[in-house]
Every structure is written in C-alpha cells, then in structure tokens.
Amino acid sequence: MLVSSRATVVSAAAPQRFLSNFKRISSVSIPSSFGFPLINDHREKKINTTIGWSNYSYRMDKKKNLAFTCAAAASVAAQPLENADALIDSVETFIFDCDGVIWKGDSLIEGVPETLELLRSKGKRLVFVTNNSTKSRKQYGKKFETLGLNVNEEEIFASSFAAAAYLQSIDFPKDKKIYVIGEEGILIELELAGFSYLGGPEDGGKKIELKPGYLMEHDKDVGAVVVGFDRYFNYYKVQYGTLCVRENPGCLFLATNRDAVTHLTDAQEWAGGGSMVGALVGSTQREPLTVGKPSTFMMDYLANKFGITKSQICMVGDRLDTDILFGQNGGCKTLLVLSGVTSLSMLQNPNNSIQPDFYTNKISDFLSLKAATV
C-alpha cells in the first residue's frame, strides 16, 4: 500500500471541523446550520466581515478573529513518481485538473487518451475539475469530445458550476439577483440552477461617461456578485460590482477562482481570473469567498455526490497553490505534473512551502513507470 508521509490539512468545508483542522485559531462564532467553506485563500489572513442570509449570517470581529494558514508545512520534500502502479492501486478515484494537465489552450497533451483509457480499464473513477469558469459543464463536454476524449458531463466540474452549486447549498433567495463579472459558463449554470442574473458579456460594451454630478445607478435587488475570468472586463463592471457589494446590505462577494494566470493558448501564459477578482478586492476592501480550487467546496461536493472516501482520491494538477493545495486541504494524495505552469525549479525552490506527495513530467508517465522488480 502506498502511504503518504505528507502532513495534510483536511477539509475546511464544515465549520465544526475548523477547530481541529487549522493551525491557529483564536475564537469564532459560527451557527451550527452554517455548512459551507468560509474562507479558502491559502495566504494568512485576519478577517473582519459579515456574510450571509438570515441563518447563514455570521460575524468575526477584529478582537476575536480567525487567523490561519492553509498551506501545508511540508515535512518531506515531494518525491519523483517512480512506481505508478503502486499509486494507481492505492486509490479509487483520480481528480484531474484540465488546463496544463489534459490540454494546453486547444491542444491535447501527448499521451492523455491512452492514460485515461488505462485508468478506466483498471476500474478507476475519473473526475475532471477546472477553475476556468468561461464554459459550463455541457460546453466542456463538447471540448473533450472535440479533442477526441470520451468524458461524461457528470464527470466534469467547472468553477462556473461550483458558483451555482454553492448558492444552492446556502439557499440563496430566489427573489434576489446575481451580478456576474464573467462569461457565458457562469450564466448558463446560474440559469440551470434557477437563479436570476444580470451582467456578463453583454456589459462588456458598456461605458461610463464621467460628467460632473454623474451618479451611476445599480440594482438594489442584487444579493451576490460572482466574479470569474472575463475577457470583456471593463470599468463599468468594476463600478457596478463595487456598488452592489458595498451598498446592498448582505451582498455576497464570490470568486470562481483566483488563478494568477491561465492557458488561453499554448504559446504563453495569460492573466487569469485572479486579476479580475483583485480589482474588486481593491475597490470593495473585502475578500471574496472562493468556490473553486483550493477551496474544498468542490471536493466535499464530489465526495458526497459519488460517495468517495477522500483518502481514496488522488488529485492530479499542475499548480501548487490551487490543485495541490486543493488535494491537501481535502485529505487526498497529490501528484504534481510539470506539463503546465509549475517547473521543477519552482517546486524545489526553498521558498515554496507546498509540497505534493509525488511529481512527474506528465500524466502519460503512468504508461511507462511500472513497479520496480525486486
């Protein structure tokens, strides 16, 4: 049996588990009915905020704040994957990131079809989780199909879906609206979940004429602002979202992800959703609740949906601060692939505190790395 020597930070999804899971906690008052991940950024923060609706409201003040660090303190450096069979046999489910693991831009990474076929032949459950919110699950299903991969829609979980699922999980009022800074994927998932929304791509062409005495109006019924990657991002959206968060009582501020960069093409890295989220963080002076990786919301959702034991999951990704931390926060085994944004030098940098259990060049190494003969 393959056993990880890594110190693991377990899920932050349930408030009742906070006291035992985080490194440092002063005091916090949270209603027992409040069942979603509170704060999930891996950087150390001190929170002074009020979030929620009726029974979901809570407050953490300056004197009694929650301060923690989610990054796992690695007692052992990541090991190169030398025995793929042992890792495969030790888990029931593989969760794969997509960008940088399965594809780059619109190009499939070499050896992926054969690797997925191998894992399925061994009876492994495959799940694909992406922080990219520009597409819905159905749209991602078409992308997999276009690349020649047979992946069921039920196996795909995008952060666009996570935003809608999260709002459902807290019984977000159906008479409230959601302002979207993001693309079509978020709109589709919100509509499928029965929520009313405004914004999105259609606000991409709107401009503000800054004339003396000009006052920008906004919808007072907006109860949540969801921010994701947005190629139509502009000042109108920043101001509209800012007004909703700052002036609408109890308005939630959600981020699909805070990725610094993304793979729009396979030629270079491009500014990611974190740049859009950062603009509203600056203007509202509030931190968002992030529903994508490394938040454990999606991990808990998947575990409940499929009845998976988290210790029987291996998270495979190319990012340390999202994919690997996502797996560690969820209590899973973790495998870093060097086919995306993280290089070996970045992994082994003394300043890097996030260490996966194993690392390898690409997922197709599963095809060649066999158990060593004794």
UniProtKB/TrEMBL annotation:
CDD domains cross-referenced by the UniProt entry: HAD_Pase_UmpH-like
Stored InterPro entries: HAD-like_sf, HAD-SF_hydro_IIA, HAD_sf, PGP_euk
Subcellular location: Plastid, Chloroplast
Group of enzyme by EC: hydrolase
Presence of keyword Plastid: yes
Pfam families: Hydrolase_6, Hydrolase_like
Catalytic reaction(s) noted: 2-phosphoglycolate + H2O = glycolate + phosphate
E.C. designation(s): 3.1.3.18
GO biological process terms on file: photorespiration
GO terms under cellular component: chloroplast
Keywords: Acetylation, Chloroplast, Hydrolase, Phosphoprotein, Photorespiration, Plastid, Transit peptide
Protein's job: Photorespiratory enzyme that dephosphorylates the 2-phosphoglycolate produced by the RuBisCO oxygenation reaction.
Stored NCBIfam families: HAD-SF-IIA, PGP_euk
Protein family per UniProt: Belongs to the HAD-like hydrolase superfamily. CbbY/CbbZ/Gph/YieH family.
Protein name as it appears in the record: phosphoglycolate phosphatase
